[in-house]
Amino acid sequence: MSVPYVGISVRGARGAADLVAAVEREVKSGRIAAGCRLPPVRALEQQLGISKNTVLAAYDELVARGLLESREREGFFVSAREIIPRVAPWKEPPAARLKPPAPLPGRSTPGTLAISSVFIDADLLPRERLADCARSVLRNPGLEPFSDFQGYRPLREAIARRLQARGMDVHEGQVVTTTGSQQALDIIARSLDVRRASMESPVYPHARYLFEQHGLTLAGLPLDPFNGIDLADWEERLSTFRPGMVYAITSFQNPTGYSYTTSELVALLEMADRYGFALLEDDWGSDMLSGSEYRPSLRLLGGKNVIYVNSFTKKLLPSMRVGFLVASEDLIPSLVSAKRLSCLGHSWLSEATVAEFLDRGYYDSHLGALQKELDARYQACLAALSELMPEGVRWTTPGGGPTLWVDVPRSVDLGKLRQRCLKRNVLIEDASGAFLADRPLHGFRVSYAFAPAEKVRKGIQVIAEELWTR
Amino acid sequence: MSVPYVGISVRGARGAADLVAAVEREVKSGRIAAGCRLPPVRALEQQLGISKNTVLAAYDELVARGLLESREREGFFVSAREIIPRVAPWKEPPAARLKPPAPLPGRSTPGTLAISSVFIDADLLPRERLADCARSVLRNPGLEPFSDFQGYRPLREAIARRLQARGMDVHEGQVVTTTGSQQALDIIARSLDVRRASMESPVYPHARYLFEQHGLTLAGLPLDPFNGIDLADWEERLSTFRPGMVYAITSFQNPTGYSYTTSELVALLEMADRYGFALLEDDWGSDMLSGSEYRPSLRLLGGKNVIYVNSFTKKLLPSMRVGFLVASEDLIPSLVSAKRLSCLGHSWLSEATVAEFLDRGYYDSHLGALQKELDARYQACLAALSELMPEGVRWTTPGGGPTLWVDVPRSVDLGKLRQRCLKRNVLIEDASGAFLADRPLHGFRVSYAFAPAEKVRKGIQVIAEELWTR
User: Fold this and answer.
1) Sign of CA dihedral A182, A116, B331, B245
2) From CA A120, how far away is CA A128, in angstroms rounded?
3) Planar angle of CA A83, A89, A91, nearest 5 degrees
4) What part of A 264-283 touches B (C-beta under 8 Å)?
5) What is the ipTM of this complex?
6) pTM (2 decimals)?
7) Which in A222, A230, A323, B451 has the greatest CB count within 10 A?
8) Could you report the per-residue pLDDT of A312-370, keeping only the tens digit for each?
């Protein structure tokens, strides 16, 4: 006990946390040098009038943080951490040659209205309930050390139950969880043993670039949401191009907002049979149906051979990154192997949190409340469009999902319109990446879900004014 | 208030949680049918002797869980959820054609000792401190709605600071977070605009399969950990094959446990310069250095053009799935674009939890304690090998990392040895996927980190006995 100790300025510290913060401040500022001994527990006990256990708890925490070292029978010391100076490189090797980045849209800057966003207003999302669920899984069962390669089993079970309730014959062994539906598409695209695929044009550009990055040759199936699918045209294209797979966004198609009719779904299944292509259904939108409306899906009508992709991303909280795919048992080993090669497995904490959220039954209640608000915003958006848009502008009426498509006369220069609107802090997303060859449309996505109705109205007003003055 | 209500069996419920559980049980068992009214709040208040607010809190939670509906001026009712019967498929389309799964090893079954595991005993990992950090970020700042595409900025900053302390010139803008280092490799492999790559043989098989899946042609650089790198042989191979990139695991190489010497690192940098290939360094092991030992890396000696990959996966908790890559600014747009196409972004909660863990300074303290235990296990493993292994068996002495390589005489049939050991509940991982063409070795990985020393000793004893009796 003969080692001298330094005085530290921790006046007013009442609990262990105060004491930890005070010592950390002193050490990091350099006012107490490495190797110095801290006051003995008893000294602080008297000085601050707090209990011995509180002081000890604070010192233990500081040891865990690496700021102090405990030496037997000597006390607590400021630890000496070696800092290695930065070294100049010895010999620079050549830089790696990478492919250029895909032309993906950036995030909007603060103060700008991202009028084309497919995301839902974060104020409508259940952040507190999700945090509750996370706290609950941290207590019970506590952090699991390993992730299941295929996905956390209770989550896969909860997903299967939800799909069963929609009439699909699905069990947990057919479900693979993914980092949002984007990774579901990635895992499928990288596993495919086919060279050609078809998809709607316009289509979700991230899917298009993804399939292209994996070396597939793509052909578009023109989708005019104002007139429905031209099945004869699609059949001619599919019978000529002979894709190995067709990717279809069947509900609230991104970016048009179009939903396939039952007879279009059936016709696509018949063509799949006739021309021997597999089907990949992206069902991102069907949880955003208004009220109790019921809509079939390719997976429902076509059974287990249809690969099905969906996600909780938009509806729960994008940062949770929980999506999934469903495929027949035969395909699961290849898909899980592809998932393992791409990332081994996912954040257990995210998956367990979403599983808890589903298990408590929060999801349907949340969707119900969310949809009520989205319906009101949708009606307000339609009213604003009717009132403000000039002649010749038309828009889709999806009746669900977060966005609709606004189509403008071909004489409008979309690039200039975007620039003029951006100057007025309204960001219209460039949709040109969504089109494969054919361009049945000339316009952009408008969201009614990302911002309150009055903000969306103001955005529409800006666009309308810039359209008038072109 | 005239609607009749059902009696429910909630005897003994003292708090809101009890009441929620009791009503949930009654509803899910079907004992209370949809549409039934629950007892009025006042009735339960009197029946159970708990406060009105407690009953209301329980009813509100049950509404959030979708089990009850609240009807104004009428009370709480069991909600009627429509269950759609499962539908038989209308028309089955063809199944998708997928590539066969890569021959990845499975997970060991309970009761089996995974003697080749590269993972660290979960009992040595800071599960409680990580849970603390997760709870802390759930409170403050609370769940963020969106993930940063490049990775949570405070985490990227903490990573950059750690690398700076090791002498590397790195800033947060050069860091991209990933789902473990596996996804870092995936993002790099899918971005590469080169056709050929070289890597050590044997090598981490997941990396080999990954590069192959992305269409790269690979050539091996034979690595004999007992004799070091044959630089003349490597130079001949590299000057002939002319890869666009060389992938190197420079510390505690997986699976051999070999660490490059400084002169080998320098020689590789010189060859990169001479033959124009880029370098990808997988530094998974250097956080598992014993004591205060210091070891340079390719990134340190070669500067920013060396792409660098590392992870917290093994050292913190595999299920957190937090890894990262570091590359020069020029390459970041392509790499972030590839990350967005593969998964958009990561679980914010996992990233923020690890950032908090680093920020509190827990990581170095944890590594210090971990390494002390691993050193003891390593010594015990070496002692067991010396004592038990028959003549002609040799092993590497990595001095760090979780595993070493045991090499047996060529006359040993490794497949049969694996089978005989598995019958005795010792799982030796098949290393054949680790070799590209050349096979400088004949053996398998032995872990001293995955299980306590006495278990590892028993596993070694089983292997030794099966080797004796061949």
Assistant:
1) positive
2) 16
3) 150
4) 266, 269-270, 272-273, 276-280
5) 0.88
6) 0.89
7) A323
8) 988 899 999 999 999 999 999 999 999 999 999 999 999 999 999 999 999 988 998 99
